[in-house]
Amino acid sequence: xxxxxxxxxxxxxxxxxxxxxxxxxxxxxxxxxxxxxxxxxxxxxxxxxxxxxxxxxxxxxxxxxxxxxxxxxxxxxxxxxxxxxxxxxxxxxxxxxxxxxxxxxxxxxxxxxxxxxxxxxxxxxxxxxxxxxxxxxxxxxxxxxxxxxxxxxxxxxxxxxxxxxxxxxxxxxxxxxxxxxxxxxxxxxxxxxxxxxxxxxxxxxxxxxxxxxxxxxxxxxxxxxxxxxxxxxxxxxxxxxxxxxxxxxxxxxxxxxxxxxxxxxxxxxxxxxxxxxxxxxxxxxxxxxxxxxxxxxxxxxxxxxxxxxxxxxxxxxxxxxxxxxxxxxxxxxxxxxxxxxxx
Length: 343
Known about the structure:
Structural class: alpha+beta
Largest sheet: 8 strands, mixed
Helix content: 25-40%
Number of domains: 2
Radius of gyration: 20 Å
Number of strands: 14
Low-confidence stretches: 53-57
């Protein structure tokens, strides 16, 4: 029986960054990473494989919709290539209909692809009749988006770069179980400093950085120590140590990209002003630490008890358009499924 399956996944924000790939074809990261999966900020994706006539089965045509409209060719092409991986694994050749709704702006530096491909991996495999483990799903989701491997899991998550050529060990795993990460009661305040898509995609920026930045080797060499320190901070529930690691990881990543040729600068005036606001908050005794992905927005890690004050300070910052206060959330999960009727 073919199923229509809807899955939901939260986006995740890397606190220790991955920037660069050791194998672009398999989307294998050049370094490990550590992230926080968020609640109520991600993607909901429905997938159904539709039985059709024999001629159509030999040449499946997938229908891809984003926010209720036919998706642009760039996004649709990525989805179709990913569906081909699922079809090959399931031994089917049926066309699919994919409908995705994002609560995260697309291609804006807010990790929409992490949530999108995590939800797609879960929904598509279940719709194709596969029952994969979370580790297997993590490896599969990585083929669509490197950071999607982490959104299969909730809370604080570590991603291994792996050493195998086929990428079988380049997977994510949770650092804490759900009761533990919920009990820590941390928040991420997201300061939005621009609208629209960013000027250069993460994939293109990573490739350019790896190829041309004189700091790239030093960047890769710095990541293992940051991961050790960040995992120790998580184990100790030490927000200050985790925040310090997150800030230096973000700054080193962006410095590496800025030194590429041509240079890559994602920041705007609001980015810099928000960073200054975080420094001022800390001088006033508030434990607040920023991280910045491949985009202009500033995400601030803090205790839940300080989130209102952090959000208010960011809202009052020149160049900040709005602020979201987000809690840690669960990994990807199925929210509904139903049989697909045969024509």
